[in-house]
From TrEMBL:
This is Alanine--tRNA ligase. It comes from Marinoscillum luteum. Its EC number is 6.1.1.7. Keywords: Aminoacyl-tRNA synthetase, ATP-binding, Coiled coil, Cytoplasm, Ligase, Metal-binding, Nucleotide-binding, Protein biosynthesis, RNA-binding, tRNA-binding, Zinc. Consists of three domains; the N-terminal catalytic domain, the editing domain and the C-terminal C-Ala domain. The editing domain removes incorrectly charged amino acids, while the C-Ala domain, along with tRNA(Ala), serves as a bridge to cooperatively bring together the editing and aminoacylation centers thus stimulating deacylation of misacylated tRNAs. The lineage of its organism: Bacteria, Pseudomonadati, Bacteroidota, Cytophagia, Cytophagales. NCBIfam families: alaS. Belongs to the class-II aminoacyl-tRNA synthetase family.
Amino acid sequence: MDSKDIRAQFLEFFKSKSHKIVPSAPIVVQNDPTLMFTNAGMNQFKDYFLGNKTPDSNRVADTQKCLRVSGKHNDLEEVGLDTYHHTMFEMLGNWSFGDYFKKEAIEWAWEFLTDVCGLPEDRMYATVFEGDEKEHLEADEEARGYWKALIPESRILNGNKKDNFWEMGDTGPCGPCSEIHIDLRSEDEVKKVPGRDLVNNDHPLVVEIWNLVFMQFNRLADGSLKNLPQQHVDTGMGFERLAMAVQGKQSNYDTDVFQPIIQSIAKRAGVTYGEDQKVDIAIRVISDHIRAISFTIADGQLPGNAKAGYVIRRILRRAVRYGYTFLNFKEPFLTDLVGQLADQFKDTFPELDAQRAFVAKVIREEEVSFLRTLEKGLKRFEIIKAETKGKVIDGKTAFELYDTYGFPLDLTSLIARENGFSVDEKAFQAEMLIQKERSKSAAEQSTGDWISVISEAEASVFLGYEHLEAESRITRYREVKQKKGSFYQIVLDQTPFYAESGGQVGDSGVLENDVERIAVFDTKRENDLIVHYTKTLPKDLTATFMAKVNVQKRLLTENNHSATHLLHAALRSVLGEHVQQKGSLVNEEVLRFDFSHFAKVTEEEIAKVEAIVNRRIRENIALDERRNVPIEEAKSLGAMALFGEKYGEFVRVITFDRDYSVELCGGTHVPATGHIGLFKIVSESSVAAGVRRIEAITADKAEAFVDQELEILKEIKELLKNPADPKKAIVSLIEEKNQLQKQIDELNQQQGSALKKDLINKVEDIDGIKVITQEVKLPDANVLKQLSFELKNEVPNLVAVLAANLNEKPMLSVILDDALVQKLGLNASEMVRAMAKEIQGGGGGQPFYATAGGKNLAGLSQALEIGKKIIHEKLKS
Ligand code: ATP
Ligand code: MG
């Protein structure tokens, strides 16, 4: 069976057992503060387990894109070195939400593996939870019983809490599990060591393929376990490992899931996969990482400097540096693999195919910039080498390479070794720890457990599409402690408050009744809960409140949200269909829209887009809002679904003119586009490779903006005495000014040479030394300087002291023939300083030329007297 077939068989099998097949959730998690990336198939169903939400179908199956590179499940360092852990992998899963439990889960898993996949029964082992005294958990005898009916007891093994008690994260749903392991070794090997001895022992050929988790508990923040309202099944099977077993391979990388990409990489590097250990690892790393990077970017997460973006950047850099060091790839290469990957997954995960050019562009830019830092880092290493006394590179330096140049420790160690050095790895780890602590304490906050006020309550009902006020009761609340004081999170049975999502900010407002009034400063989603943020808790938690949304803020926000839809459609019509939303922010002030596009949006394009949006506003198109539309129907209406969004089977469709804007959207909107009033784009910029950002304003903000611009224009016109054509008037003013400037320059020159002549005529000859001491009137300091130097050039043996009135500002200048400095011991700098006191100023310069400015114009003649005195004294002596 090829891998496509295996995937299809799995889904078909569970369909035949009355499971509904659902799409994979995006790999990037939104609205869940405990998780950055999807790390297991169950993530998207968390609320069903917790009883926050009721599923439409209580049996579900799918293949889920997972990423295990952060948090509780982090396999990054293993990837490529071993043959069965990936960063991104597909997890095949089947679920029961309060329906079937251990018996069916175990029997069906066995049936699928043996009957459908034809895997050898005697090579498979089942593990069951052996219990844990500390947690007061009993052994899972029930699961053991069902296994005993299927396989001999010798192939049923006990597992401890680490291996057989599954938890998604530090808190959340969890329970005992039963895993299925397979032994893929040769007959000879099996004879030597029985497979049961190698289960859960990190043997690359005796691996876990399927984990059947029996969800029974919720792990609370204080570490205790609480029974879930119902019992559920959550299973996860590594698709690539299953393919390895079914295809009789000994490595996930030898299956048809990886081989095509591996062959491309090997070809480009001019090597053969399977001949050199180090080269093979590098090829595996790249073939794995390109999947993680591509699918994550396609799901909307761009590489960046923080959080999820940084995780992706690190994975990309890890791939680049393996290629650089072991395959001699000095130019971007990951980017060239995107197309092949997109083709391979076209039918399973079409989001990559649909955005292949964009994803390739983003990856290319990242590669180019990292290759540059890599080179810089290598140069830096040369300097470090020269500066290091001895042969050990200290921890701080290794950390600098890591922190500034993105060099992982193993890269630094490798380069060091090649140069006959070693790295103080312990000290590096110590530096790393210091940094971790620093970033941890900055973000420190602790979230308490939910405290329920009304038991049996489910997720709250959202009334905010119709109502801005509603009668509500608190169903649960919790405290969030932060360094800067704490706040509360409150869930209501029903609420008009819109929770931040899809770029639209959360509502603020109040909860009030006759006795109290509590301000709600924000509203956010947590999976499917609508969570209201408050600084205080009501005294009576069981009371009924009027939940009132801040109407002004909401309405302004709606203008911006609807305008965003109009903008999106206009951009697609002006720039092309490649425009995809890459992010948005909509609040009461502005709208910000990020989208894929490879060039700067020109002034003309912006004008066109604005014109289209404003025309649509004037058409006053009525909102066509439809809820619970089957997703297929919505798509056939031409609705633009955003990649990276999680859509249920039924969606909300927002339409402004069926032929113009049809979007899937959960946000709130104006009843008709006329409410928006006016739309103005205020900026266009770049946010990342291939992603542009437009910021715009609407309604009274746009009006105020235009008014302000017009006001400025009006003032300008008034200054110009209201000409018929103000632009022409300004252009001729500028021309006139340039003309005048030219004339002034000429006049200054004429005046300067006339003055010069005059001064030369007045030269005093004292024993062959030519002395000029004069008060002059000049336009500026430059002219004074020029005059001084011209005098010096034309009159030999000159001492010139000029006291100038420069447009009512005093300035002194002293210039000497170079020979006189020596001969007479005259010093221009000293002289000017002695004189400057008279004009309340200061200055200096060189021995042959110095100037001084000042404040007291009336002191000029006195200053000149001092200059004369100094000269006469020197000449007499
Ligand atoms: P292992 O001990 O091998 O790391 P796990 O206990 O972390 O596996 P689960 O969390 O139970 O695995 O995930 C369910 C299934 O997903 C596993 O049985 C395995 O087939 C697959 N799987 C888990 N981690 C990875 C990974 N990093 N790459 C590929 N497949 C994986
Ligand atoms: Mg693991």
